[in-house]
Design brief:
Blueprint: E1 7-12, E2 35-41, H1 55-62, E3 66-72, H2 78-87, H3 91-94, H4 105-111, H5 119-125, E4 129-134, E5 156-160, E6 173-177, E7 187-188, H6 196-211, E8 218-223, H7 268-272, H8 278-311, E9 318-324, E10 329-330, E11 337-338, H9 344-347, E12 348-349, E13 351-354, E14 362-369, H10 373-380, H11 398-406, E15 412-422, E16 427-428, E17 431-432, E18 436-438, E19 441-447, E20 452-458, E21 464-468, E22 499-500, E23 503-504, H12 505-519, H13 532-536, H14 545-548, H15 554-563, E24 585-587, E25 590-592, H16 607-612
Parallel strand pairs: 2-8, 2-9, 3-14, 4-5, 4-8
Antiparallel strand pairs: 1-15, 3-12, 3-13, 5-6, 6-7, 9-13, 10-11, 15-18, 15-19, 16-17, 19-20, 20-21, 22-23, 24-25
Helix pairs in contact: 1-8, 6-8, 12-15
Bound molecules: 2-acetamido-2-deoxy-beta-D-glucopyranose (NAG) (4 copies) and calcium ion.
Length: 639
């Protein structure tokens, strides 16, 4: 199988917000060092309703805390997403774009200096005890030198490391503590007979029981591989714990309009996919059941963590955060099992927070993203924000949530992706699809008072997607003027849908393209990732899409758009960040011309031609399958 990597640019999510001082409730005031337990699952969806099948999450977190229903993974892939979580940086700034090779995984993290610039290091400086149990990053294997240099910053950690990280039985851990970051223990492969999720849980409970004995504040991360597919040997869906196997025979992929739809959707290869046959949808549904059953072991963790905190009178003093590194799709848009797309299934992930001052049973639709988690945890620890953070603290009190919800100017999430993707589960015109394809893109989620928009620009063919999620929650109708259409039919725009939320689509596109231009280049305090309009209108009189749509700005955006379009001049199938190939950039002083000779859009109906029509080969790419088994694909797009 062709293992060259693609760059997937997942849109980074940003939101512009009015500069309103956040009212700090007691619980969140700097100076109070609260403890935090962070439960991070791997590839858990929100859009396929996985949380509905987790009764303890419902009872102890959703009913007792706040559910952030529009929380996004800025890059829908384990390693880039996790680095964004732990550093507060978008992938275009931390530069870890892949799970392996030259572009991602452990070696890249070390090379970028990120092992000494992430959350546990900062928390320790503030007197925290820091603990980790489970999978931290990808590629923490012997091959990549993890036995000499491992993760810093943990008081004590049991990290899933090495070739069998994604095996549900006999999990391998590396024991790390504060004295051995530079000469850690070897990976212990002898947890024979143990089930990965319960072993992670066991280590975590040990840490928690130790931590609650002391007055020191603590941070504990619990990161099982659940419900990631099993990789290495017996590749396939996640393996539920024995006691849960077969207990959820009725769990079913939600039958949304985008589930194996009769009509085509998306762009490029996705547009060309054949509808899945019954045998394949049955496999996907079995996969869904395995995910559901595997997640019950995580549900147990939620219950036990809650119990330990409660028994030790720490519940009122400790936040519990629950999230997943990226989402997952199973059959939506005719895709197989996987992630990496800008579709909501892949990018919109669970985030629930409970703890001191956090409203109970509240559901909020404010847009938040993984880059916001480290800022939020620093706030919980009573620490100052860092200048280079791309994210910002999430409101966790009624007052702050009200304020953010009221603001019309708080609307962005930016998703980006480098790398490629495969379609091994699919056929096109009856033929199996082999190989990996360019899947680099930039995308924007934009949510305001009366609009809910998703906008995606792919490298391949310069294809654009534009969805009105208020009417089309599952992204079936591409409203872009150049959207593909079935032969001899017109696309939605051509057949008369030329407004979105009342805005003329042509004018809307100029504005959101400009916002994305800013966001794809945003950086810490220099170019705020949540205030694109402030860059575009330094006079300060435009704070939202609605403001920017005012006809008085038509000429400005006509002009800007004719000179600076978001796009790519060359596509890569791997994680290479080639700024020169990423079109114009935004800088502190305004737009910077890039090569405008963008890969041109062709609505190519011949899939064979289509597959080779852009220059999608990176000649540098010599990467081959790793020995640690992490890279071996399973059916479609499992990484
Ligand atoms: C760290 O691990 C080593 C090796 O087991 C052990 O000797 C040492 O006591 C541990 N240090 C702490 C602080 O737990
Ligand atoms: C791990 O396996 C050992 C040996 O079979 C067993 O004694 C122990 O209870 C298991 N631990 C967990 C958490 O399953
Ligand atoms: C296509 O893929 C299916 C499923 O993996 C396989 O059974 C079949 O043999 C393949 N067909 C060809 C022509 O390779
Ligand atoms: C494709 O890329 C190769 C290698 O970089 C380059 O030599 C070639 O000119 C490119 N072709 C096109 C059509 O851009
Ligand atoms: Ca993942």
């Amino acid at each position: 199988m062709d293992l060259r990597l693609f760059l997937n640019l997942f849109a980074v999510f940003l939101y512009s917000t009015a500069v309103i001082a956040q009212s700090s409730d007691e619980a969140a005031r700097p100076g109070k060092k609260k403890s935090v337990v962070f439960i991070l699952t791997d590839d858990q969806d929100q859009r396929m309703n996985s949380l509905d099948h987790m009764p303890e999450v419902q009872k102890l977190l959703i009913d007792e805390g706040t559910w952030y229903q529009r929380h996004y993974a800025p890059t829908a892939l384990c390693c880039p997403a996790r680095v964004s979580i732990w550093t507060g940086l978008h992938a275009h700034n931390h530069k870890v774009t892949s799970v392996h090779g030259k572009w991602g995984g452990w070696p890249k993290i070390l090379q970028q200096g990120l092992n000494s610039k992430y959350l546990p290091i900062w928390l320790r400086e503030n007197g925290y005890k820091t603990y980790y149990a489970g999978k931290l990053y990808n590629g923490m294997s012997e091959k990549n030198g993890v036995e000499t240099t491992t993760a810093r910053g943990w008081t004590d950690a049991q990290l899933l490391c090495g070739a069998s990280t994604y095996q549900y039985h006999d999990p391998p851990f590396q024991h790390v503590n504060e004295t051995n970051w530079n000469n850690p223990h070897k990976i212990n492969k002898n947890f024979k007979g143990n089930y990965s999720t319960t072993k992670v849980a066991d280590f975590a409970y040990e840490y928690l029981r130790e931590a609650v004995k002391h007055d020191d504040p603590f941070f504990l991360a619990i990161a099982p591989i659940t419900p990631h597919v099993q990789v290495g040997k017996d590749n396939g869906p996640p393996v539920p714990e024995k006691k849960y196997k077969g207990t959820r025979p009725d769990a079913q992929i939600p039958q949304t309009d985008n589930f194996n739809p009769g009509k085509r959707s998306g762009v490029n290869k996705v547009w060309h996919l054949d509808r899945l046959n019954d045998q394949k949808t049955k496999l996907l549904n079995e996969h869904y059941q395995d995910r559901t059953e595997a997640l019950l072991s995580v549900d147990d963790i939620v219950a036990q963590v809650h119990k330990i905190l409660k028994d030790n009178n720490k519940l009122d003093d400790t936040y519990i955060i629950y999230s997943s590194d990226n989402g997952f799709h199973l059959g939506q848009h005719r895709l197989g099992a996987g992630k990496k797309f800008a579709f909501e299934e892949d990018t919109n992930v669970p985030l629930i927070i409970r703890g001191p001052g956090v409203p109970k049973g509240r559901k909020t639709s404010i847009v938040t993203a993984h880059v916001d988690l480290s800022p939020t945890i620093l706030e919980m620890a009573g620490m100052k924000q860092r200048d280079d953070f791309d994210g910002r603290k999430i409101p966790i009190t009624d007052g702050d949530l009200d304020q953010r919800e009221k603001s019309d100017a708080d609307e962005y999430a930016n998703v980006e992706f480098w790398e490629g993707t495969s379609f091994g589960f699919n056929t096109i015109q009856g033929k199996n699809v082999t190989g990996k394809f360019v899947n680099a893109y930039k995308s924007l989620r934009l949510v305001g008072k009366s609009y809910d928009i998703s906008y995606i620009i792919h490298c391949h063919n310069n294809a654009h997607e534009l969805y009105d999620l208020s009417n089309d929650r599952v992204q079936m109708e591409n409203l872009h003027p150049a959207a593909p259409a079935p032969e001899s039919e017109q696309n939605a725009f051509e057949s008369g849908t030329n407004t979105l939320a009342g805005f003329p689509i042509q004018k809307l596109l100029q504005r959101i393209d400009a916002a994305l231009l800013v966001l794809k280049s945003c950086k810490g305090d220099e170019i705020l990732c949540h205030k694109p309009w402030a860059q575009l209108h330094p006079q300060g009189n435009v704070n939202s899409l609605r403001d920017a749509m005012n006809t008085r700005w038509d000429e400005k955006y006509d002009d800007l758009h004719s000179n600076y379009k978001v796009g790519f001049t060359q596509c890569y199938k791997n994680g290479k960040i080639d700024v020169e190939a990423e079109g114009p950039q935004w800088t502190k002083t305004g737009p910077k011309p890039g090569n405008q000779n963008l890969v041109s859009f062709t609505n190519e109906n011949d899939p064979d031609k289509w597959a080779v029509s852009s220059n999608d080969t990176d000649v540098d790419e010599k990467w081959t399958v790793g020995k640690d088994g992490e890279e071996e694909g399973w059916w479609d797009d499992w990484e």
